[in-house]
Design brief:
about 160 residues; mainly alpha; two-stranded antiparallel sheet; about 5% strand; elongated
Length: about 160
Amino acid sequence: MTIRSYTELSQLGSLEERFAYLQLNGTVGDPTFDDMRWLNQRFYTSRTWRNLRDEVIARDYGFDLGAHDVTVRGDPRIHHMNPITVEDITEGTENLLSLEYLITTSLNTHNAIHYGDERQLPRPFVERRPGDHVPWKKGTIDLDALRAADDAIRRRQTPGR
């Protein structure tokens, strides 16, 4: 199994490159902790995890996958770069608790890493400009031609002309 690390991840520039490095290609419904799910949930509600989570978010400045041009909108998630196991939790392994194996993500990015693809990643913000929602102001519709066609239709529909 490939061990993913924050040190390696931070060498990658874009969100897409970082996503490709972390992508797991899982399937929704695949068992993870089976009947030990309670153990996983106990860990994620512990003070240890909450404190560690805050450290990760602060280190990443709230950026999605630590990419400095993509801010997490909404509640940030913390992703274990290497899937955790029951043994990681019961033994408190480095994989579970080291900042080197954790990264801040948005919910969409986290779901994409586990089960999706790059289409789920956040899209760059496009600043709105006056008239950008009005297609005929962009020159995509010839208003004169449209008026002429409309007049021609009206002339054919009006009796006695």
